[in-house]
Amino acid sequence: MSQNLAKKPLPEFRHLDVYEVDDVTVVHFKDQRILEDLAIQELGQELFYLVDVEQRKKLLLNFANVNFLSSGALGKLNSLEKKIRNLGGVVKLCSIQPTIYKVFEITRFNTIFEIFKSEADALASF
Questions:
Q1: If DSSP codes are grouped into helix, strand and coil, which group holds residue 105?
Q2: Domains along the chain with CATH numbers
Q3: Which of these, 90, 81, 116, 91, lies nearest to 101 by C-alpha position?
Q4: Residues 6 or more apart from 41 whose CB is under 8 A from it?
Q5: ∠115-55-9 over CA atoms, to 5°?
Q6: Which of these, 29, 26, 35, lies nearest to 5 by C-alpha position?
Q7: What distance lies between CA 115 and its chain's CA centroid?
Q8: SS3 116
Q9: Distance from CA of residue 47 to its chain's centroid?
Q10: Of 69, 124, 121, whose CA–CA distance to 95 is shortest?
Q11: What is the pLDDT of residues 3-19, one digit of tens each?
């Protein structure tokens, strides 16, 4: 990865703040609680838009703002990971709160996703 870490903003989303650092699409979740079915559907649409329309293949999902995550949201993340992997891409995660990380351990998501403590560490790994 080059040393140019300038953040380039991408389209505006309701549930996501998205920008690009080199060829990595960085996603910050706006919602602290990702629990409601409608919000999860919309969130999924926004994430899949990045893959299907924007053709992003390197995603970094930053969970710093997220305090609660439902099983439905986990399902969306799992589907997103499979789709990007099948396209030859990768999804990495960072800045996960300890309570959510426990859920990732229980569901074994920590074996599916590469997880980093900080966004900087995650970006350096691409």
A1: helix
A2: 7-124 (3.30.750.24)
A3: 116
A4: none
A5: 75
A6: 26
A7: 11
A8: strand
A9: 8
A10: 121
A11: 445 555 556 788 899 99
Report CA dihedral (52, 7, 27, 115) to the nearest 10 degrees.
110
Residues in the chain: 126
pTM (2 d.p.): 0.86
Provide the token pair at 81. Answer: 């990971």
d(CA 25, CA 12): 14
Angstrom CA distances, 45 to 18, 51, 52, 80, 97, stand at 14, 10, 10, 10, 24
Q: In the 8-state DSSP scheme, what is residue 56?
A: -
96-118: pLDDT as tens digits: 999 999 999 999 999 999 999 99
Task: List, edge to edge, every strand of the sheet that includes 16-21.
Answer: 7-9, 16-21, 24-29, 58-62, 90-94, 114-116
